[in-house]
Amino acid sequence: xxxxxxxxxxxxxxxxxxxxxxxxxxxxxxxxxxxxxxxxxxxxxxxxxxxxxxxxxxxxxxxxxxxxxxxxxxxxxxxxxxxxxxxxxxxxxxxxxxxxxxxxxxxxxxxxxxxxxxxxxxxxxxxxxxxxxxxxxxxxxxxxxxxxxxxxxxxxxxxxxxxxxxxxxxxxxxxxxxxxxxxxxxxxxxxxxxxxxxxxxxxxxxxxxxx
Length: 211
Prior knowledge:
It is elongated, with a radius of gyration of 20 Å. The longest helix is centred in the N-terminal third of the chain and has 36 residues, at 14-49. It has 211 residues and is an all-alpha fold. The chain is built from six helices and no strands. The chain is 78% helix and 0% strand.
């Protein structure tokens, strides 16, 4: 027997409430994408000013980490989409397993990212006034890595938020497998996670590949 997904507040029925939740999520995701778009435009603008230095600086990022993390996030997106499908088929157990697997991949993404941060920090590749990388001292180098830390750090914070949401959802699926609201919960969580992955798809070539 389903626990309840009864309408509440101003909503006439459950369907109306779910549509309102979807709209709210799309508005939120749109604002997040605008934030990243503004920062990405800043990156592009400075790259136009310092093309040669930015191209050299890209070479000092760990391409294998960036590429591996891309595959990790793409796989995790597949898993949350599969979990959403299982939730719609009233299979909360498999939905929970899919979300849990995506959660583990998200942790792996962060572990690799912080491994790269540590390597950069030890070499003197730091943001702002802390920049002390002897191999690249041309004007614009410090700016590139400051933007690198800003963009990837903000993205990592979004990953952390997504991991918290996935963990909460996974526990709910395990404890309340018959809750009629599970499919829309999975859908909203998946939408957020796909947005995080989409942002990385743009950061990956800009910070790791294009030289």
